[in-house]
Amino acid sequence: MKYDQARWTDDNEDRYEPLLSEKASQTVDIDDSPLPDDLTRDSLSLPDPAEPELARHYTRLSQMNYGVESGPFPLGSCTMKYNPSFTEDVAARADAAIHPDRPDSTTQGTLALCHRLQDYLGRIGGMDAVTLQPPAGAAGEFTGIQIAKAYHEHNDDERSEVIIPDSAHGTNFATAAMAGYDVVELPSGDDGRVDIEALEAAVGDETAALMLTNPNTLGLFERDIEHVADIVHDAGGLLYYDGANLNALLGRARPGDMGFDVMHYNVHKTFATPHGGGGPGAGPVGVREELAQFLPNPHVRERGGNFEHYEPDHSIGKVHGFYGNWPVLLKTFAYIARLGDEGLRDASAKAVLNANYLAEQIEYEVPFGPFHHEFVASAGEQDAADAAKRMLDYGVHPPTTKWPEIVDEALMTEPTEGETKRSLDQLAAAFNAVAGDSDAELADAPSRPTAKRIDQATAARNPRLSWQALDDT
Amino acid sequence: MSNSDSHTTGSPYAPQTAAETATMLEAVGADDLESLFDVPESVAFDGEFGIDARSERAARREVARLLGRNADLTEFLGRGHYDHYVPSVVDDLASRSEFLTSYTQYQPEVAQGFLQALFEFQSMLVELTGLGVANCSMYDDATALGEAATLSQRVRSVSGDRILVPEHLREGKRAVLSNYADGPELTVESYPMTDGVVDVPALTDEIGDDTAMVYAESPTVRGVIEERLSAIGDLAHDHEALFCLGSDPVALSLLERPVDVGADVVVGDAASLGTGTAYGFGLGMFVTREEYLRQVPGRLVGASEDAADRRAYTLTLQTREQHIRKERATSNICTNQAWVALRTAMHAAWLGPDGLVDLAEDCVTRARDLADRLDDIVGVKAPVHGRHHFREFLAHTDQPASAIVADLAAEGFAVHAVGDHLVQVCATETTADATDEFVAALREVAK
To answer: Glycine cleavage system P-protein N-terminal domain: which residues (chain B) (predicted)?
Structure first.
């Protein structure tokens, strides 16, 4: 018999944690219910662990998971920075746990806080009005593009295309398509930035918007941003700012000042809310004055010292059933209040210094530059995905791999401001050790984590997406 | 030593010392931090945000001061956002930083814990619905419904652009659906309800071969348990439309299994387990038939094996997703509500099947018993619909509903106003201790 509680067993032992369904399950027959039989199910079979078993199960699972507090997490484009503990206490307050359908007069505290956060985000992005409703960055993109669409329709000027650089996040393309637009992909120039000639050729009467990330996913500032803005505006389009990389620019440049009309903020990237293994996030959207009339319903405003919800004149409607991811917004507010001007500026400076320092220490080639908060190294002759697996053996989380595609075997690396020099030196040592390893060592990696290399192809070819679908239980 | 309220300079979470910063600047050949920013002068920001830095204690005090302006009310509120008691062990375990501060599981070898927890979450939804595929979250019930509508268009073999939704539907949910329907040019239309449930003959008149999806809820937004789900499912299938059912995991623990009434997609809010009241913060549940697997939006966790032939978990079928498929992805969703799903799975496991069924049965009896008590009050008739209810019900009041809401707020209670003389009342275990006072307060204000 396996003794699965013995966690200190040798590396070669079978250390996986049984499924809850394999530990303790029960089937309950439903009879004597207060409902007629024809309205109820017959039975329910689910795990039934006692609380001590439950605690051990999830504690063990947590031990098989790597978080920001486990070590460096230099996933490019994801900005995995330390999440201050106190913001968790702020979000857990009992007086924050209110129902969304209360009358405004009984939620003045929540509305005041939302109003103040709208104001802070507006100042940080150089935007005139901000909605907090979108529940994630991609939802913010969808909100922003729907606003652009409403703007054009309001002007009786329907347009069919959204232009997106080839180095952009996949969400940009998917968002534009979801909103019903045709996507025009813009090839990057030789310097990794927007190719002005290609942009001039791409814009026209059908251009609804250009979606741009600045600094872009290579960490490069789009130096021609004013020219880019003029080209898009002259064609009657709007300029959309993907806020994924705003952590690189806090206090140095603002999207509103660069000519952007609409933007989203990724609060887990720029303002340190925890990513929770995939979410929740929040994707507030900022707009310039002329577009405020299209913001989602409702918006928060102040009237004579009181706060209220109201519907903007030409609102696009709603993008979340209620008011968005409120606990995440609370953490965002707390973080911004803690840092203030100086802290936000410092966070960006250290994020950029850390990326530049790390890039200088690693032996892989780093094309392009000068970069800001992240850089994209090339694994060269190595397979970037294999190199990443090998980094796990050196005890650190690897960078994002094989993207953006304009760098061969990309290792997209973003150390964030949260690392010390010592930690960056260790990270660089891990990169350099992998750079010197053989293809065979890379192909066999990882050997040290609980799970060895996981077969992704079989998972997709033979999908087993629930314990009911497993044949080995 | 500085005191705890002292003004900080710089970010307290950027740990370099000044000496380290100097060494690092030298290593990269920069004179100072500002020279690292490759920002043209003409767009450089030289102003201030005007946001003062606070100490941790001051920041917490400020939030406390602000939120102190929220009235202290006992909420008999629901309509899509419910308060069930969440045990401490859920907060404790979910707060472990390995879960809370991790990222989407792009490196599954060091994310087995979260992947397994999400796999277990998906499995629980499979058991609750009887359908084969659950994703590991959408943002909330409204966005899940929007995704279901776009899925119906993708999987349907014949063209059709009408999405039929019930007359009784939360306005916010319908508004979100309309935005999702906008791009693919779907039309959202309401069908009538009679005495709280779907008017099946009227729906029969509304539906046609151009209908892509029929949406119904049980319990409905008014808390009514729908009685003719199978008939609605049959009707949808007669027209090759998808039948999308809205519900939640507590209700599904007791009510008819969606697979048995012909549901093709199940959506709803699953945060009613694991999170409780949070100003509308939710967890979109999305479960569907296996035949639609490759059209499912969002993340899916699958089982596989590692190089040592041991069971292991990984995100799978990612070619559906935006980071691979770009404009041909099934959805633009990237960041989702994974951590909320973790909490829901923990809470469901803590309750176990007997605990879930008990909780669901209590939702039926609490609504019934409270309605009976309110019906005894002069000036109140409850429930308005002579049906079985779940958690909540509609009551008719002789006084205007707006006056009832305002007067009850003054007494420390919150209910919904849903019509000129209609209020809606929701009862769970978290309001049970306040029931007597609530009934007494309503007796006073309903006269």
So the answer is: 13-434
| pLDDT, tens digit, 9 for 90 and up, residues A69-105 | 999 999 999 999 999 999 999 999 999 999 999 999 9
Nearest to B317 among A38, A297, A460 (CB): A460
ipTM topping 0.85: yes
Alpha-carbon gap: A37 to the closest alpha carbon of chain B (Å): 9
**What pLDDT does B13 receive?**
97
Q: Which residues of B touch A9 (CB under 8 A)?
A: none
CA dihedral A151, A157, A163, A169 (to 10 degrees): 30
Query: B158: pLDDT confidence band, cut at 50, 70 and 90?
Result: confident
Q: What are the tens digits of pLDDT across the range A341-384?
A: 999 999 999 999 999 999 999 999 999 888 999 999 999 999 99
| pLDDT of the residue at B314 | 98
Domain B88-345: top CATH class: alpha beta
Distance (Å, whole) CA A275 – CA A277: 6
How many CB atoms within 10 Å of residue B447?
11
Q: Chain A: residue nearest B311 by CA?
A: A16
- Tell me, rounded to whole angstroms, the distance of Cα B324 from its chain centroid: 27
Chains A–B, number of C-beta pairs less than 8 Å apart: 661
Q: Does the domain at residues B74-85+352-445 carry the CATH identifier 1.10.1610.10?
A: no
Mark yes or no for CB contact B28/A356 under 8 Å. Answer: yes
Query: Which one is the CATH code of A342-459: 2.102.10.10, 3.30.565.10, 3.90.1150.10, 3.90.930.60?
Result: 3.90.1150.10
Instruction: Domain ranges for chain B, please list them.
Output: 18-67, 74-85+352-445, 88-345
> Domain extents for chain A?
86-338, 342-459
d(CA A451, CA A408): 28
Q: How many Å apart are CA B258 and CA B230, to the nearest integer?
A: 9
pTM of the entire predicted model: 0.97
How far apart CA B352 and CA B109 sit, in angstroms, is 29
Nearest Cα residue in chain B from A79: B103
Rounded to an integer, the average pLDDT of B304-318 is 94
Q: Do B333 and A138 count as a contact with CB atoms less than 8 A apart?
A: yes
Q: Which amino acid is at A247?
A: N
Asked if the domains B74-85+352-445 and B88-345 are classified in one and the same CATH topology, the answer is: no
What is the average pLDDT value for chain B, to the nearest integer? 96
Confidence check: pLDDT of B213 > 80: yes
**Which 172-201 residues of chain B touch chain A by CB within 8 A?**
172-173, 175-176, 178-180, 182-185
Q: Which residues of A touch B346 (CB under 8 A)?
A: 54, 58
**Contact between chains at A136 and B14 (C-beta distance less than 8 A):** no
Domain A86-338 bears CATH identifier 3.40.640.10 = yes
Residue of A102, A124, A141, A178 to mutate for B, most B C-beta atoms under 10 A: A178
